[in-house]
Write a structure and sequence with these properties.
2 domains, single chain, four-stranded parallel beta sheet, Rossmann fold, alpha/beta, binds D-glutamic acid, 10 strands, 11 helices
């Protein structure tokens, strides 16, 4: 049996491409539809109820494209809406918080874990709960980093301005002597070189992208939803949709995905 339906992936902007890249890597024969809500990015400073509403609209849109699974490749949307959308829709839906928390619990040796995330994700306490569900004795230190997403969406992923801001966000985590930092926003792997340099070699940076992609593979395989290619060359195709300027998304997205995004469709359905 082969299931050719695409996997739906969404984020507020280009950050979720870090998750898409892992899915393409691990499941190269799967078709994907990526939606970036670039008209409404960033989600982090918004109210949780508003972001939950966005997530409902986007999942509904992806379901209308007949996706076989939805990945909420956005921590803020996962924190705001995962349970609500799972309850409402019959398609399997996974988020990025639980996979990231699990990776951190596996990796920490001194059981002091930092979480770097947007304001919404930090205030939701979702990471603290997810880590404690696995190991209640781990100290979790959460730090909001509101400036990162707007910078990354402008294409700033290195340089002195980023360095200064990153240092101020990371100082409190350095003081707490964490040995693992969860990149609690799917945009942050794009600036991991800077974060790594400031935190130093003894601190592991945890991105949930790899773990999430693994989980996608497991669900598809257990449910018999994998797409069987005709031959080894029959790779999956990716469709990109965004809610603001498609041209801008294609340029920035190609840079981050390290692959040319040929066409991006505007999602008029959401306007
Ligand atoms: N990539 C989103 C996340 O993982 C960014 C949130 C935002 O738009 O502020 O939380």
């Amino acid at each position: 049996m082969s299931d050719p339906r695409p996997i739906g992936v969404f984020d507020s902007g280009v950050g979720g491409l870090t998750v898409l890249a892992e899915i393409q890597d691990r499941l190269p024969y799967e078709h994907t539809v990526y939606f970036g809500d670039t008209a409404r990015v960033p989600y982090g400073p918004r109210d949780i109820t508003e972001v939950r509403g966005f997530a409902f609209e986007i999942v509904e849109y992806l379901v209308s494209l007949d996706v076989k699974l939805v990945v909420i490749a956005c921590n803020a949307a996962t924190a705001a809406a995962l349970e609500a959308v799972q309850t409402r829709f019959s398609v399997p839906i996974i988020g990025v918080i639980e996979p990231g928390a699990r990776a951190a619990v596996l990796d920490t040796r001194n059981r002091r874990v930092g979480v770097l995330a947007t304001k919404l994700t930090v205030e939701s306490g979702a990471y603290r709960r997810a880590v404690h569900a696995l190991d209640a004795g781990i100290e979790v230190y959460e730090q909001a980093a509101p400036e990162f997403v707007p910078m990354i969406e402008r294409g700033i992923v290195e340089g002195p301005d980023l360095e200064t801001i990153a240092q101020s966000y990371l100082n409190p985590l350095i003081e707490k002597e964490v040995d693992a930092v969860i990149l609690g926003c799917t945009h942050y792997p794009l600036i991991s070189a800077t974060i790594n340099r400031i935190m130093g070699p003894g601190v592991r940076l945890i991105s949930s992208a790899g773990q999430t992609a693994l989980e996608v593979g497991k669900i598809l395989s257990r449910r018999g939803y994998l797409r069987r290619p005709r031959d080894a060359e029959d790779l999956g195709k990716s469709i990109f949709v965004c809610s603001a300027d498609p041209e801008e998304f294609a340029v920035l997205g190609s840079r981050f995905l390290e692959e040319k995004i040929e066409a991006v469709a505007p999602a008029t359905v959401l306007q």
